[in-house]
Amino acid sequence: MYKLIKKCGNARRGEFKTPHGTIQTPVFMNVGTLGVIKGAVSSMDLKEIGCQVELSNTYHLHLRPGDQVIKKMGGLHKFMNWDRPILTDSGGFQVFSLAGMRKIEEEGVYFNSHIDGRRIFMGPEESMQIQSNIASTIAMAFDECIPIPSTKEYVEKSVARTVRWLERCKKEMDRLNSLPDTINKQQMLFGINQGATFDDIRIANAKEIVKMDLDGYAIGGLAVGETHEEMYNTIDTVVEYLPDNKPIYLMGVGTPSNILEAVDRGVDFFDCVLPARNGRHGHVFTKNGKINLMNAKYELDSDPIDEGCNCPACQHYSRAYIRHLFKAKEMLAMRLCVLHNLYFYNNMMKEIRDAIDGDYFSKYKESKLAQWSGKA
Ligand SMILES: [Zn+2]
């Protein structure tokens, strides 16, 4: 259940109660595709870097190790030793972006596994069953993530089908939550707004899915090739039609400045692979913007990645040492940079929450944007 505590402009400070604890929002969800953050980061590390919600991918866990294995091991919480909230995506995005030879029908999608090529079918019921076996806190509805650009005719047809899929998801989740051997009988369901960059389709779809009284609403199908202005415009358009008493999740976004802009427009939940992926390549976020540790100028730099940062990497190691680890292809290099970048994101969300609480969010946003672009 979502409780709006305070607003600062359109930015919202809230609390979302779940069976696995209360989430303070706005929040960044840390992406652990296979039940682990890539870069040798454990669930114990996640607690140390202030992670509130871990996000895992249904498609990937279905293929490896298999959701039946996870169910037999007592659910993903037990399997990966993480007792805080977990959100699982529906598998839709990966089916449409990773799998080969896909065929979309009213029932669902036929596709080939990207691991061994075997033919698999996934529809709304299958997605809900897999997510129920994983036993995540929040399940996402099965949807088609529409490529941008697409014709208006295609977007209309796809969105109408995704709404029919959402009705099937809700029905299937209600059924699964009532079964005696279901691990998390209080699993929550978020619906997903789609419509590419067509405002009228986005609005009609938002009105439609809000009627279903779901636990939360996501804005999907963004950060797939549209401009930042188009993305911000779509958020502005959609947020107006979503209820005040439910959390709003912007899927797959984004850079620190994207997050500040979206919080300013009323978004509560975020996820993105960017901080971990950047970290694995030695690209780290600092208060003065992103730097590349591979640059020669850091060879003799005894400063931490980011002066004043309280993450495990900055507390103990210098830029020069971490750069050396990268050059020597030591795994610790990736691990330290991923820990730093995730800490940077989680800490930024904490600062955002403090800024809304303290009524200075606009000032905070402006000063951060200026600092990151090197102007302050
Ligand atoms: Zn740090």
From TrEMBL:
InterPro entries this protein is in? ArchSynthase1/Queuine_TRR, TGT, tRNA_ribo_trans-like
Q: Which residues bind Zn(2+)?
A: C309, C311, C314, H340
Cofactor binding annotation: Binds 1 zinc ion per subunit.
KW Transferase (keyword) present = yes
Name all tRNA-guanine(15) transglycosylase-like domain ranges. Answer: 10-372
- UniProt entry keywords in alphabetical sequence: Glycosyltransferase, Metal-binding, Queuosine biosynthesis, Transferase, tRNA processing, Zinc
Segments carrying the region annotation (RNA binding) are: 252-258, 276-280
Task: Name the enzyme's class.
Answer: transferase
Q: Which residues form the active site?
A: D89 (proton acceptor), D271 (nucleophile)
Q: Where does substrate bind?
A: D89, S90, G91, G92, F93, D143, Q194, G221
For activity, the cofactor(s) needed are: Zn(2+)
The molecular function terms in GO held by this entry are: glycosyltransferase activity
Reported EC number(s) for this entry are: 2.4.2.29
Give the pathway annotation: tRNA modification; tRNA-queuosine biosynthesis
Give the catalytic activity. Answer: 7-aminomethyl-7-carbaguanine + guanosine(34) in tRNA = 7-aminomethyl-7-carbaguanosine(34) in tRNA + guanine
**Superkingdom to which the source organism belongs:** Bacteria
* Pfam family, any one: TGT
| Family statement drawn from the similarity comment of this UniProt entry | Belongs to the queuine tRNA-ribosyltransferase family.
**Biological role stated in the UniProt entry:** Catalyzes the base-exchange of a guanine (G) residue with the queuine precursor 7-aminomethyl-7-deazaguanine (PreQ1) at position 34 (anticodon wobble position) in tRNAs with GU(N) anticodons (tRNA-Asp, -Asn, -His and -Tyr). Catalysis occurs through a double-displacement mechanism. The nucleophile active site attacks the C1' of nucleotide 34 to detach the guanine base from the RNA, forming a covalent enzyme-RNA intermediate. The proton acceptor active site deprotonates the incoming PreQ1, allowing a nucleophilic attack on the C1' of the ribose to form the product.
Q: How does it assemble?
A: Homodimer. Within each dimer, one monomer is responsible for RNA recognition and catalysis, while the other monomer binds to the replacement base PreQ1.
Recorded protein name is: Queuine tRNA-ribosyltransferase
Q: Which organism is it from?
A: Clostridium mobile
